[in-house]
Every structure is written in structure tokens, then in C-alpha cells.
């Protein structure tokens, strides 16, 4: 038996979701700061470079792959080639993989000794931070989409919600691809 959603319960659920997002934002920022601190103060042994680089590349593959799959599912929904339920199913499946990618990037990147004096490296770090922060912010978008009927079409959404969906996808892809391209350039130049 389901409990009816009263305005008060809905307000409590939204407040709890805001609190979880705030914790998520702070967690991402703290993880980035710890990763940068380790990367600039700890000199890892030479034998650790290859496994850290492998883990870093694997994290890129997992995280970017999850982001591309999710945004592609959103695009298919937007083009009426898939339903909202399909998008929801993909989101539930790949969101954990995207976070695994972010955590892996921060964890392994700390042992690759990033040179923060290089502008491209700083831009890459910002891109990873933006991807992670956008991931936290997308939890609110996911909650909004969860309240919609399963058969709703993208074109039937309010313009503000449509813009939010598109903006989140653009930010995600821009951040991930920026990090990938700069990482490739940095690795190739060593």
C-alpha cells in the first residue's frame, strides 16, 4: 500500500534531496582538493606510474562511456526514437559507472603528479570538476523527470525543463571531452 504524497511529505523529500546534493557538491570539491594535494606533495615511486596511468585511462573509458550512453539516450528520447522509461532505465544503469569514472580519475590522477603550472592541466582539472559537479546537479533533473508520466514526450515538457535537459547534456559532454583531449595532449607531450 502506497502512502499518499502530501504537500508536507513532498517538501520534506525535496529538502532531503537538496541536502544530499549539497553533501555531494562538498564531497566532490573535497575529493578534488585531496587529489590535487596528494598530486602536488607526494612523490610516488616510479613503478606506480604505469598502473596509475592504466587506472586513469580505464576511468576515462568508464566515465566517458557512461556519459555518452546517457546523453545519447536523452537525445533518442528528444528525437522520439525512445521513451522516457528507456532513458530512466539507462540512467539507473550507468550513473554508478559515471561516478566510478570520476572517483577513478581523482584517485589515480593524484599519483600522476599533475603539473598545475601548465594551463592545460589546470583546464583539465576544472573540466573534471565541472563534470562531477554537473553529475551532482543532474540528480535534481533526474528527480524532476521521475515525477513525469512514463509516456511523456520531450516536446511536451515546459521549455525550462527542456533547456535544463539539453544544458546538462552539453555541459557533461563538453567537460568530459575537454578532459579527454587535454589528457591525451599532456600524455603525448611527455
TrEMBL record:
Keywords: Membrane, Transmembrane, Transmembrane helix. The keyword Transmembrane helix applies. The chain crosses the membrane at residues 23-47, 53-77, 97-114, 120-142, 163-185. This is Uncharacterized protein. It comes from Microbacterium psychrotolerans.
